[in-house]
Design a protein that fits this description.
This protein has 323 residues and is an alpha/beta fold. It contains eleven helices and ten strands. The two termini are 40 Å apart. It binds ligand PBG. The site of ligand PBG has 12 residues, from helix 6 and helix 9.
Length: 323
Amino acid sequence: MFTARPRRNRKSDAIRALVQETRLHAADLIYPLFVTEKESSPIHSLPGTTRLSIVDLLKEIERALKLNIQSIALFPVIDGDKKDLFGMEALNPSHFHQKALSRIKQEFPKICLISDIALDPYTKHGHDGVIDEEGRVLNDPTVEILAKMAVVHADAGADMVAPSDMMDGRVGAIRRALDASGHSTVSIHAYCAKYASAFYGPFREALSSTPKGDKRSYQMNPANSREALLEAQLDEAEGADILMVKPAVHYLDIISKLKEVSKLPISAYHTSGELAMLLAAAERGWLDRDSALLETTMSIKRAGADMIFTYAAPRIAEMLREG
Ligand code: PBG
C-alpha cells in the first residue's frame, strides 16, 4: 500500500504550471469604460475608476491596448437635463455617446467595441425602459426603442451590442433590426441571466442612475437558477451570440450551469459593487488587493466564463504580463 500524495503535483513552480487547469489571458478581459461630455471625474465608490472625457477615454484605450486588452464596453454618462421619461436622447445619432463610439472605432479599428443597449443612462427614473403612470416598466414599447438604439450604435461602429435591460424578446427584435439595416455582422452580447442585485451601486453612482424603486420586475430573483436556463434558451433561440451572467462572483453556479447547457460562449460581469467590496477591504489593509483580484478573476474563469467584464482589467493585465 502507498499513500496517495497529490502534493507531488504541487512540488515546484514548473510542476504547478504543468498541472494548472485554468489560465487567464489579457485577451479574456473586457474593460468597461464610462464616457462623459464634461471633464473627467472620479467615481468615489469605485476607487481608480473615472468618468472619462473623450480625450482621456482615447488615452485610456491606448493604455489598455498596450496591455493586450482587446475589448472594451462603453457606458455613457448623460447630463440630467438630457434625461427624460422615455430616454429619447438614446436615439439621437449625433449625441456624444454615438460620436464616442465612432471616434473609438476610427482611432482603434481593431478593438472589439461593445456598446450598451439599455435606457437607464437616459431616463430620469433610472429604469431600463419606459414606464407607465403607475411606474410599471413597459416591455414591448421599450423593446422597440432598444432595437432602434442598436441600429444607431451599429451605424456608429459598434462590433457588438450588449442589451443589459432584461426585457422579454429584445434579443430577437435587435437581431431583426440589425439584419434589416445591413448589420448582419454585428453580434449580440446578451445580458442573459442578469440578477436584481445589490452589487451595482458604484455603477449607478457613476451614471446618476439609481432607480426609483427596484428592478425586480425585470431583473432576475437572486434565489433562482433554473430560470437562468430558461433565459439562456430564449436568448439563444432569438439569436444571441454570447450569453452573459451578471454579477459574477455571487453567481458562479449560474456560470457553470450555462456553460453546460449552451454551446455559446459564456461571459461574466464582475460588477462595480463586487469590485468595490474588494477594494475597500484592501484599502483598510484587510486583504491584499492584487492577489485578491487575480484569485477572483481566475475563479470566474474556472467556473466557466470565457470572457470577463472587469474594471480592474488594466491592473490584471499588468500582473499577467509580469507573470
Ligand atoms: C443597467 C446596467 C447596470 C449595470 C450595467 N448595466 C446597473 C443596473 O442594472 O441597474 C451594472 C454594472 C456594474 O455594477 O458594474 N443597464
